[in-house]
Amino acid sequence: MQKNATAVRLTHKPTGMVVTCQSERSQLQNRLRAMAVLRARLYATEEEKRQQEEAAQRRSQVGTGERSEKIRTYNFPQSRVTDHRINLSIHNLPGVLDGDLDSFIDELVAAGQKQRLEDLAA
């Protein structure tokens, strides 16, 4: 009985991933099966990479929730509101709670413009 070499080894050059298959009786069937396995592994690798990027993006948007990430502090005994992003304190808590946010908005816009100018200069 004559045995033919039917094993197949495929190498995906961009990633260096190697797949071998020798379970079928013909070389063509082994090649088709190896291609299917390689395709599945490449898809799984890309999907994992995409999920990691998505998770990293979510984490950056959500933040850690630590105290150092707080945006504003409302101090009721002293009637003070502090915006920690721009280090602005206003001693008019009832006004801020009623919607008088113009001073915060003006300072945030100015800080944003200043940051953009610094980014352009760099």
Q: What are the defining features of this structure?
A:
single chain, 122 residues, alpha+beta, Double Stranded RNA Binding Domain, Alpha-Beta Plaits, 2 domains, three-stranded antiparallel β-sheet, two-stranded antiparallel sheet, 3 helices, 5 strands
Describe the 3D structure.
This protein is an alpha+beta fold and 122 residues long. It is 50% helix and 17% strand. The protein folds into two domains: 8-62, Double Stranded RNA Binding Domain, CATH 3.30.160; 67-121, 2-Layer Sandwich (Alpha-Beta Plaits).
Using only C-alpha atoms, the radius of gyration works out to 30 Å
CATH topology of the largest domain: Double Stranded RNA Binding Domain
Which structural class fits the helix and strand makeup?
A: alpha+beta
**Count of strand segments:** 5
Order of helices and strands: EEHEEEHH
The 3D shape can be described as rod-shaped
Instruction: Summarize the main sheet.
Output: 3 strands, antiparallel
Can you tell me the CATH class of the largest domain? Alpha Beta
Mean pLDDT: 89
β-strand amount:
15-25%
Second-tier CATH architecture of the largest domain: 2-Layer Sandwich
Distance between the termini: 76 Å
Helix content: 40-55%
Low-confidence stretches: none
Number of domains: 2
Give the count of helical stretches. 3
Strands of the largest sheet, in order across it? 3-4-5
Short description, anyone?
By secondary structure, the chain is an alpha+beta fold.
SSE layout and pairing:
Elements: E1 8-12, E2 17-21, H1 27-62, E3 72-75, E4 80-83, E5 88-90, H2 93-97, H3 102-121
Antiparallel strand pairs: 1-2, 3-4, 4-5
